[in-house]
Specification:
The protein is of the alpha/beta class and 283 residues long. It contains eleven helices and nine strands.
């Protein structure tokens, strides 16, 4: 029997409604989507059916073990779980999962939306000579490798403290940081936290994944959503990604938003998402 994952369906699906699958980010779970789901209007829910899936080892799927813990294996479980073609929206690490879905199972992905995500999360530098001196020049903006190394080390000592530290990074830059941190914490800690091994292996996906050269192969409608004050996906990434993505890719930047724009700028986020999705119906 094919391996599947538990998932949740929100709002009463209408006949011929289009599934919208929401994928959470690293260290968290699908409870993070509750404010967004509550904010969706009747106009939206008459057309789309909202589905959330916890990644293996997280939330409702905390006991689901996969080996190796890879994007390919995660997507195999998702495609076994959701039979109907759907629109996939992935936040942060979930954006990498959604991207892998669009590339590997194009017949299953009607459209792709990434939120505060990057095809390569880690900063990249290369050696160069400037004024007869050897220097390291920034090639790709992102999370400094030493930050992720520190997370790996901290996970072995105190996993919950590490997650709390990561939540602070996600909210950094928001005009209401403390409120956002409190809200995110209340949402995600409704479920037990993933174990250290799952957290460590899934963190490696952020370190090792690089989809830059593969973005041109995404043929589905592709929306990229960013926060201008995101501390994990620098604003400088946005122009770089646009060079790799095809013409069917569009972007929107939420001014003053953090790594979680659907928390810090919920109403604006809901409106932009709804407008884009409804516009796809007439294409």
């Amino acid at each position: 029997m094919a391996e599947t994952l538990q998932f949740s369906t929100y709002l009463e699906p209408k006949k011929h409604s289009i599934p919208l699958v929401l994928l959470h980010g690293w260290g968290l779970n699908s409870a993070i989507w509750q404010p967004l789901i509550a904010n969706l209007t009747t106009e939206f829910t008459d057309v789309f059916q909202v589905i959330t899936i916890d990644l293996p080892g997280f939330g409702a799927n905390i006991n689901k073990k996969i080996s190796p813990y890879s994007l390919a294996n995660i997507c195999q479980h998702i495609t076994n779980t959701i039979a109907q073609p759907a629109i996939y929206l992935g936040w942060s690490l979930g954006g990498l999962v959604a991207t892998e879905m669009a590339l590997t199972y194009p017949e299953k992905v009607l459209a792709l939306i990434t939120v505060a995500s990057s095809p390569r999360f880690v900063e990249q530098k290369s050696a160069a000579v400037v004024d007869d001196k050897a220097v390291n020049q920034l090639v790709w903006p992102g999370i400094k490798p030493q930050v992720l190394n520190a997370f790996h080390q901290q996970l072995q000592i105190d996993a919950k403290k590490t997650i709390n530290g990561f939540l602070k990074l996600q909210a950094m830059g928001s005009p209401h940081v403390r409120q956002d941190i409190k809200q995110i914490s209340q949402l995600v800690f409704q479920h037990d936290m993933a174990n250290k091994n799952t957290l460590d292996e899934s963190l490696k996906l952020l370190e090792t994944s690089d989809y830059r050269l593969r973005l041109k192969d995404i043929n589905q409608p592709f929306l990229r959503l960013y926060g201008s004050a995101d501390s994990l996906v620098p604003k400088a990434v946005i122009e770089q990604v646009a060079k790799f993505a095809k013409n069917n890719s569009k972007q929107h930047i939420f001014i003053g938003a953090s790594h979680a724009p659907f928390i810090s700028h919920l109403d604006d986020f809901t409106q932009v998402l709804t407008d884009w999705l409804l516009s796809q119906l007439s294409c």
